[in-house]
Design brief:
The complex is a heterodimer of chains A (about 270) and B (about 290).
Chain A (H helix, E strand, L loop, with lengths): L8 H10 L9 E4 L2 H12 L7 E2 L4 E3 L15 E4 L2 H9 L3 E5 L3 E2 L5 E2 L2 E2 L7 E2 L6 H5 L3 E6 L36 E6 L2 E4 L8 E5 L5 H6 L6 E8 L5 H10 L21
Parallel strand pairs in A: 1-5, 5-10, 10-11, 13-14
Antiparallel strand pairs in A: 2-3, 3-4, 6-7, 8-9, 11-12, 12-13
Helix pairs in contact in A: 1-2, 2-6
Chain B lengths: L3 E2 L1 H6 L6 E4 L9 H9 L5 E7 L1 H8 L3 E9 L8 H8 L4 E4 L2 H12 L4 E4 L7 H4 L4 E4 L7 E6 L3 E12 L4 E2 L8 H7 E12 L2 H4 L16 E4 L17 H10 L5 H10 L6 H4 L3 H5 L7
Parallel strand pairs in B: 1-12, 2-3, 2-9, 3-4, 4-5, 9-11, 11-12
Antiparallel strand pairs in B: 6-8, 7-8, 9-10
Helix pairs in contact in B: 3-4, 5-7
Classes of the chains: A alpha/beta (about 270), B alpha/beta (about 290).
Chain lengths: ~270, ~290
């Protein structure tokens, strides 16, 4: 396995995000959005063949389906996963999704629902969708393409769509044990919420990014993990898989400016 | 027994203030011919329950909706339904936003004639603040866990679109995903279906397709023959959603008087002329079903 010397930040992020599913067992892996979906495919085709994936609609596949128009590609179906069975998978805990909230706070709570007052939102976003149920039932990782104080905000998210570790949100007697946040991959770094009392922690910095820069772009205090790694470059094998899963290059449209994976000197 | 009805008969049987559930999922398999007939009527103050697509935006834009109960309202390739967004940002409708799964659980409770079903879904999130009427229940067993008691969502009527039906009320629904049409049918006092094809006896016409029957005919009050009746949404396996039409609809949401323009262009006039107004039946039948 040789690490590539030329790759984009999106490709680096895909490989970092794939790690979310390492060692997680036989679960339904749902990568929502192009990079998380490619990432789940990379995981399945390399170190996590056990994960289950769908074609993006209602069928299970053992070979990840490439993004976009399929051309001659015909998916081979191994099982059926209509929405009713997605909910069954969610509620029995055998799922690990990677999602993209618009806002994340220090308690690991995420918002995709709306900005401003719920009764009359300033900006209506997607609504809570399945986030409340997902986040109290199974592990969720996150991918945010733009790491700023507008996405990692100082206060609490405007709408708590996915739950986190804010004690006041949990009435007496509620079982919050299933709340499980995996990794948080951004255009700058990899974080988790495994610091003391579930504090946010930087575990890996993308090449050329400093901890101080990440902290400066984050609205709440971050902890430095004991050893902070540099996010590894994709291998040639991984890049080949990424190209196969995204033949039309949708990944180039996700991170603003589609920058290279290793920062150019200014 | 003959349950065949016309669109106007169904709408005449509905009344102001009713709770109406609409089947399908986002821009997929919506009973749009019936929705358009409601848009042409003077029905008002409806509570609409749906995994919403364009029908929710249109009913909001036409001022038919008092309250919305929904898991989401989306056109998929246009992530936020444009007229729904407009109504929400104007504060024009009372909104009971639920987690997608909570909606399922509420419909299930109604269908099984239970007051509520317990779940963890919604706990710890703002679903409980958006819906302050939601109450908690304590497990009577040794675990003593506090759970959310999702109340039954009882519907006065459910409106669904199916692939084939007969005059007895038997239905068949093609496509990879049944969505939650069966739960809507079961949660409703009355269920009306529009169908792409109506036959006298489905057991004689399509004896090999019984596996695609999603709910019993005792749930079905009326059947309306409405070919292309799901347009501009997908009707598996016959035609896909009409992206061009939906883009035009979405653009109109940004214009002054945009809804009136949409209504005059496509909804006004009898449903029998609708296919012609949107480019002809052949065009609709040729719309590809999107892949992801």
């Amino acid at each position: 396995m040789t690490n590539a010397s030329e790759f984009t930040l999106a490709e680096l992020v895909v490989c970092a995000a794939a790690e979310a599913w390492r060692g997680g067992g036989e679960v339904l892996a749902t990568g929502i959005g192009p990079l998380p979906r490619i990432a789940a495919g990379v995981a399945k085709l390399t170190f996590a063949p056990e994960i289950l994936m769908t074609d993006g609609e209602a069928w299970l596949v053992e070979e990840p389906v490439p993004l976009g128009p399929r051309g001659d590609y015909k998916p081979k179906y191994s099982g059926w996963m209509p929405y009713s069975r997605v909910f069954d998978s969610v509620w029995c805990g055998r799922r690990h999704a990677m999602v993209t909230p618009v806002q994340v706070d220090r308690w690991g709570q995420g918002n995709i629902a709306a900005l401003g007052d719920l009764k009359k939102p300033k900006v209506q976003l997607l609504g809570v969708r399945g986030f409340p149920g997902n986040s109290i039932s199974h592990r969720n990782s996150m991918f945010l393409p733009s790491h700023t104080k507008r996405s990692f905000i100082e206060g609490e998210v405007d709408v708590v769509a996915s739950v986190g570790f804010a004690d006041r949100r949990w009435p007496q007697g509620v079982n919050k044990l299933p709340v499980d946040i995996g990794i948080v991959v951004t255009n700058l770094c990899i974080m988790d919420f495994n610091g003391p009392d579930h504090a946010a922690r930087v575990v890996s910095l993308h090449p050329g990014v400093s901890f101080e820069e990440v902290q400066g772009e984050t609205g709440f205090p971050l902890i430095r993990a004991e050893t902070v790694a540099t996010t590894p470059a994709p291998t040639e094998e991984q890049l080949a898989i990424i190209r196969r899963l995204d033949p039309t290059g949708i990944r180039a449209t996700v991170i603003k400016g589609n920058p290279p994976g290793i920062r150019q000197a200014a | 027994m003959n349950k065949q009805m016309q669109l106007a008969d169904v709408v005449a049987s509905l009344s102001d203030g009713m709770t109406i559930g609409i089947g399908g999922w986002g821009p997929r398999r919506k009973p749009m011919a019936l929705v358009r007939e409601i848009l042409r009527s003077d029905l008002k103050d409806l509570t609409v329950v749906a995994y919403g697509g364009p029908e929710v935006g249109m009913l909001c834009a036409a001022g038919k909706v008092k309250r919305l109960v929904y898991g989401f309202v989306s056109l998929d390739f246009i992530p936020i339904e444009p007229f729904f967004r407009k109504a929400r940002e104007a504060g024009g409708v009372v909104s009971s936003e639920l987690d997608e799964g909570l909606l399922l659980i509420g419909l299930q409770a109604a269908g099984h004639r239970l007051p509520f079903l317990p779940t963890r879904v919604g706990l710890g999130s703002d679903v409980t603040s958006i819906n302050p009427d939601l109450r908690m229940v304590t497990s009577p067993y040794d675990d003593g866990e506090t759970l959310l008691a999702m109340p039954a969502i009882r519907l006065d009527a459910a409106l669904l679109h199916v692939t084939r039906a007969d005059r007895l009320g038997n239905t068949q629904t093609d496509g990879p995903d049944p969505y939650f049409d069966a739960l809507f049918a079961r949660a409703a006092a009355r269920c009306y279906v529009t169908t792409e094809e109506l036959v006298d006896r489905i057991d004689l016409a399509y004896p090999d397709k019984a596996r695609s029957n999603l709910f019993e005919r005792y749930l079905v009050t009326g059947v309306v023959e409405a070919p292309l009746g799901a347009h501009p949404t997908t009707a598996h396996d016959l035609y896909g959603w009409d992206a061009e039409h939906l883009r035009e609809y979405a653009a109109l949401a940004g214009e002054e008087g945009g809804w009136a323009k949409y209504f005059d262009r496509y909804v006004a006039g009898p449903e029998s002329g609708y296919a012609e107004r949107v480019g002809g039946a052949a065009r609709v039948r040729g719309l590809p079903i999107p892949t992801f």
